[in-house]
Write a structure and sequence with these properties.
Radius of gyration: 18 Å
Number of helices: 7
Largest sheet: none
Strand content: under 5%
Number of strands: 0
Length: about 140
């Protein structure tokens, strides 16, 4: 492995080095509610585990993560549409700038995948950058 590859892997690992509170959860609760935890990352479907698994500490943790991800994604889409509308009304030659900012949207795909992987593996691990916010009582 080259130094560049190691450096990239170290950076990704550092970004994903978030708080892991799995040891605080009951293993039976984790096993029983993995599906609800996974479902929490599918946008508006986060409502299902919030309502159907309200007694599961593990499902509530992932519901909180999924709700934060959903709200953040909605805010990003609104801000991106306003930004692109303003920039493109100034000049169509600035389309490159809108495209670059649009690439930030891939971060939501990464968070989505990380959340599902963590839930499927039975881990209560926060999403990078946004996972420390608490909207639901766990």
């Amino acid at each position: 492995m080259s130094n560049q590859e190691e450096s990239f892997e170290e950076k990704i690992s550092a970004i994903n080095n978030t708080v892991d509170t799995t040891s605080e959860y009951d293993p039976q609760d984790i096993e029983k509610n993995k599906f609800m935890a996974i479902l929490a990352y599918f946008g508006i479907l986060v409502i299902i585990p919030i309502l159907a698994a309200k007694d599961s500490k593990f499902a509530r943790f992932h519901s909180n993560q999924g709700l934060i991800l959903c709200i953040t994604a909605i805010l990003y889409v609104i801000a991106y549409n306003i930004f692109s509308g303003i920039i493109l009304s100034i000049s169509l030659h600035l389309f490159w700038l809108v495209s670059i900012v649009g690439l930030l949207g891939f971060m939501f795909l990464i968070w989505f995948i990380l959340g599902i992987i963590n839930a499927a593996k039975g881990r209560a691990k926060e999403l990078p950058f946004i996972g420390h916010f608490k909207l639901l009582k766990v």
